[in-house]
Task: inverse folding
């Protein structure tokens, strides 16, 4: 079969941009103040703090930079950080850049989140922190960790566990506003912190190692170089976009949950026949940033090719960090056969808030057809 033309394809992701976003950008352009850490950033931080019930939310230029600030504040030099191998390289990079060594652990099968039993077995005298990634927006409870927890909540804005928002369960939480996330700003993110001392240190690091935040708040007459830092503020245009998106987060999350429920129902017979397994939330409430299924590894390439031929923008996901060239060079890992098998089995399907019912049915039909012919 020939590939369908682009105008009939179902992409993996489609951002929901409307009048509110356009008005937000026009507001910033009319004001003419485009640099980061301005009025839009401060309003975004206040709105995040209220919504997530966290004392300090710092708008930054990416979730990667939020992770880097968190690792810097943990003073990792010569220490180790336990993290799931099935996550994005930003997590490993943040550890290495802060002078630490990643120790990779397994993920569990129902939701592809960190296997806490395995992670805790790797905690030792040199362990400085544990990273949990809420994969696909499916929460995982890190309460059992004996060391500080950094939450990679890049997938999880809108997810909750025990009445608390993901990103507020550990010492630091890291959010993403990347163009593919549930709340989009093109690029951008936020660092969530409860401790006021850590929040002040994070602001200094974010603002090139200066106390410019205190200057902007009228607390000092001028600002100066007071510590190590980098330029990690979120530009005003990005903050305005994020604010417009955040205002309808509840609707975004509701729509994503409806798509996930429709997929689970529509793929139920394939799952009962053993053709695939749905990656499901097993703790708390998911925002369903990703909808993924697991298939036999030897079938995945053919199934992906067939789905794309049918006009469905399906994709694989992370290469395990312990199996990557740089991960092998800088990290430590026991054998991780479950992670390797799951990573080789995963197929992501399109999910976004404007995915029409007809498009959802087309995805389900395409998966059924691909399973028959691959």
Result:
């Amino acid at each position: 079969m020939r590939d369908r033309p682009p105008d009939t394809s179902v992409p993996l992701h489609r951002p929901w941009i409307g009048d509110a976003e356009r008005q937000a950008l026009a507001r910033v352009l009319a004001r003419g103040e485009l640099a980061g850490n301005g009025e839009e950033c401060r309003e975004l931080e206040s709105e995040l703090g209220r919504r997530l019930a966290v004392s300090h939310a710092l708008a930054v230029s990416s979730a990667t930079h939020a992770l880097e600030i968190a690792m810097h504040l943990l003073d990792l030099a010569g220490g180790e950080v336990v993290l799931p191998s099935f996550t994005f390289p930003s997590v490993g990079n943040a550890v290495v850049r802060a002078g630490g060594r990643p120790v990779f652990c397994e993920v569990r099968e129902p939701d592809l989140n960190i296997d806490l039993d395995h992670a805790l077995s790797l905690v030792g005298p040199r362990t400085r922190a544990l990273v949990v990634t809420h994969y696909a927006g499916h929460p995982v409870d890190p309460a059992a960790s004996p060391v500080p927890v950094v939450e990679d909540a890049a997938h999880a804005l809108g997810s909750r566990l025990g009445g608390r928002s993901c990103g507020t369960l550990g010492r630091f939480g890291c959010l993403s506003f990347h163009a593919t996330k549930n709340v989009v700003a093109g690029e951008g993110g936020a660092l969530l912190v409860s401790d006021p001392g850590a929040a002040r240190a994070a602001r200094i690091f974010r603002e090139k190692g200066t106390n410019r935040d205190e200057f902007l708040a009228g607390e000092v007459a001028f600002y100066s170089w007071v510590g190590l830092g980098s330029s990690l503020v979120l530009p005003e245009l990005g903050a305005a976009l994020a604010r417009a998106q955040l205002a309808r987060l509840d609707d975004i999350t509701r729509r994503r949950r409806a798509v996930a429920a429709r997929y689970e129902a529509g793929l139920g017979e394939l799952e009962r026949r053993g053709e695939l397994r749905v990656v499901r939330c097993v703790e708390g409430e998911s925002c369903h940033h990703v909808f993924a299924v697991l298939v036999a590894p030897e079938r995945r390439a053919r199934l992906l090719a067939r789905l794309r031929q049918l006009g469905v923008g399906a994709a694989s996901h992370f290469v395990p960090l312990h199996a990557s060239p740089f991960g092998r060079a800088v990290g430590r890992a026991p054998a991780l056969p479950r992670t390797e098998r799951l990573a080789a089995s995963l197929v992501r399907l399109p999910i976004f808030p404007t995915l029409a019912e007809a498009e959802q049915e087309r995805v389900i039909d395409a998966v059924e057809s691909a399973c028959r012919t691959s």
Remarks:
- The chain is about 40% helix and 15% strand.
- Confidence is low (pLDDT under 50) at residues 1-7.
- The CA atoms of residues 42 and 59 lie 8 Å apart.
- The longest strand covers residues 127-133.
